[in-house]
Amino acid sequence: MSNQTLNPAEQLYSEVEAHRKADYPVAPLFLNRWSPRSYTESQVTDEVLNTVLEAARWAPSSSNLQPWRFVVAKTEEQRQAFHAFIRPNNRLWVEKAPVLILLASHRVNANGDPNGAHAFDTGAAWGLLALQAKLLGLSTRAIGGFDKEEARLSLHVPDEFELHAVIALGYQGDAETLHESFRDRETPNGRRPLQESIIEGRWEASE
């Protein structure tokens, strides 16, 4: 079957299949989730947004401290405030995303001692957020290219919170709507072979 005869959903699945092959059997969700830059202007309802964040709420965390926080921008005014601290190259595509989420984590526990697992746990929350978004037909992309200090000042984030990423959330658009510098990169990327990430027993010195 040629790509010209596929409907949009089938086309997207075909593109993923062309770029991603699992070394071992996994649920299709893990391969089909990727990080597009293209977004439509379709709005994300509060119910859908809260469902995505609800999934993140159930991530595992050390001592159940749940260090993650989600600063959400969904109105035009709120998104404009986020755009101001996102780097220009990312602004070329992110301004179409209907929802932006600043992901932060609380660095200390209830008695003021450092929480050494805050970033690890918040990464788990981001992973569940991204998977739930995909299950609902949405796309996500995490952005590290933003001015953290400007974001902290603009959004009044307390010093005891670390800022990790801005997450774009919305419905995937056509790659042709992107700035030309991104169009050829709007495809799912692959992964190195699993065995290259596994160290059995202990790390051996390289020869």
UniProtKB/TrEMBL annotation:
InterPro entries: Nitroreductase (IPR029479), Nitroreductase-like (IPR000415)
GO molecular function: oxidoreductase activity
Pfam families: Nitroreductase
Top-level taxon: Bacteria
UniProt KW Cytoplasm keyword: no
Ranges where the Nitroreductase domain occurs: 32-83
Family designation: Belongs to the nitroreductase family.
Protein name, per record: Nitroreductase
Natural source organism: Paenibacillus contaminans
Lineage start: Bacteria, Bacillati, Bacillota, Bacilli, Bacillales
